[in-house]
User: Fold this.
Amino acid sequence: MNIKIIISENKNIIIGKDCMFSQECWIRNSDGHLIYDIESCKRVNISRDIVIGDHVWIGQNVSIIKSPFIGSGSILGMGSVVKSRVQSNSIYAGNPSILQKESIFWDRTSAQPFSDFETTNSLEYKNSNSDYIFKGVDNSSYWQNNINEIASINDSLTKIKSISSISDLDSLIIHFPPKKQNKFFNIFLKK
Assistant:
């Protein structure tokens, strides 16, 4: 899996829980270079936060470009270029992506190894679908409230800079419980 994320201008890219990414996906919240209107000389391409809700399936070679909100439970089809809002529990595909189908939900089970019997057996969902249904307006408000509470990248960098200014990092001891040890931090703590 290869996902490329580019964050610019102290904005946020927020990815909800239980999202599924395929290969070669791009997420970027800016155009990379400044663009101005000829008449007004005002900038027309300001970077924006990107919010990807919970349980979103992002297909192979999808590019998410300055899209303000990708609703929970949605699917972004292979090769899509997503530049605008995506509603919850829907499928979007194409360049630019457009709504293909509404009122859907998806399950993480892969159909690739299915036999004919398993395919026939999967034609109707047998469990409760309540975990996969997201209310659009409520879901959007939930994420907007979360983004308002999140400190900007600049605030985080300020905190990192103040930690890195400690001259003797050997005196900084971090304790982790044995069973819930964070392996990512272990890489940096080992000498």
Remarks:
- Residues 1 and 23 are 5 Å apart (CA to CA).
- The chain is about 20% helix and 20% strand.
- The longest helix spans residues 136-149.
- The two ends are 29 Å apart (CA to CA).
